[in-house]
Amino acid sequence: MSEAVRGADALFLWDFFSEAVQDAWPQADRLSWIHVAAAGVDKLIFDELAASEVTVTNAQGTFDRPIAEWVLGAVLAEAKDFAAATSTSRRRSGSTVRRVGCRGSQRSWSAPARSDARRLVC
Questions:
Q1: Alpha-carbon dihedral angle through residues 101, 102, 103, 106, given to the nearest 10 degrees
Q2: What b/e string do you get for 102-114 counting C-beta neighbours within 10 Å, with b at 16 or more?
């Protein structure tokens, strides 16, 4: 990182537990912005960075909705015993599960691979 940060204006940091920024700090001659791909930056901050004019931003809130949706889905799946229902359905119909894309989204949902499977629209 020492070579990469020399002359750089900004730094995107994925692994904020790493001490690479602190180790490369003497070579950060033009650095004015560090963006951390995590909610917290406490592990990144060291004395020289705190005393500098470098702006540090983070990704707080970026994953709030996807995590909430996943948790809600997991709760519903457990409450409705989806695993048993899917297993029973597969044994009865002998079908497999195929993935059906949602219109206008990268998300996908599972639907029975029968001729009467409906297209899901999100």
A1: -80
A2: eeeeeeeeeebee
CA 88 to chain centre: 33
CA dihedral 13, 44, 3, 8 (to 10 degrees): 60
- Confirm if 102 and 121 have CB atoms less than 8 A apart: yes
Q: What is the mean pLDDT of each run of 10 residues along the chain (122 residues)?
A: 89 86 93 90 91 92 85 89 72 57 48 47 44
Query: Max Cα separation, the chain?
Result: 67
CA distances from 67 to 15, 70, 71, 73 (A): 20, 5, 6, 10
Cα within 13 Å of Cα(49), Cβ side: 21
Predicted local confidence at residue 97, as pLDDT = 55
End-to-end CA distance of the chain: 43
Torsion of CA 113, 114, 118, 122, to 10 degrees: -10
